[in-house]
Amino acid sequence: MSIGKYLTNFGVIGALLGALGTLRQTQAMPKDWRRYLIWGVWAAGLVLAIVSVAKQPEDEEHEERVKETERLEKARSKALAKAERKAR
Fold first, then answer.
1. What is the pLDDT along the chain (88 residues), one digit of tens a residue?
2. Contact at 8 Å (CB) between 6 and 12?
3. CB of 34 closer than 8 Å to CB of 57
4. CB-based contact 39:26 (threshold 8 Å)
5. Could you tell me if 25 and 39 are in contact, meaning their C-beta atoms sit under 8 angstroms apart?
6. Which residue in 20, 14, 72, 77 sits closest to 45, CA to CA?
């Protein structure tokens, strides 16, 4: 796995830059559970961005399989229609 695909992904970049806003927001807050909750939400967003990059090849493979299935189904229906016309 290459780290470059993560560092060049706009979702990951946006999530990392979101740490700046989160830092600014939490600096003025009292040190209680709400501060940790905000950082937890930020961390969850970062994890989702990273996982989406990791799963991208699987999504592309699935899309290819769906397109191939649609292509085969279309060819099958054309062949059935041709066979029906021939049978008449």
1. 578 777 788 888 999 999 999 999 999 888 889 999 999 999 999 999 999 998 888 888 999 999 999 999 999 999 888 888 888 7
2. yes
3. no
4. yes
5. no
6. 14
Lookup: tokens for 14: 């946006």
Contacts for 70 with CB less than 8 Å, ≥ 6 apart: none
Q: What residue type is 24 in one-letter code?
A: R
Rg (CA), the chain: 24
Q: Are 42 and 22 in contact (CB under 8 A)?
A: yes
DSSP 21-33: HHHHHHHTS-SSH
Report whether 18 contacts 45 (CB < 8 A). yes
Cα angle 72, 66, 5; round to 5: 140
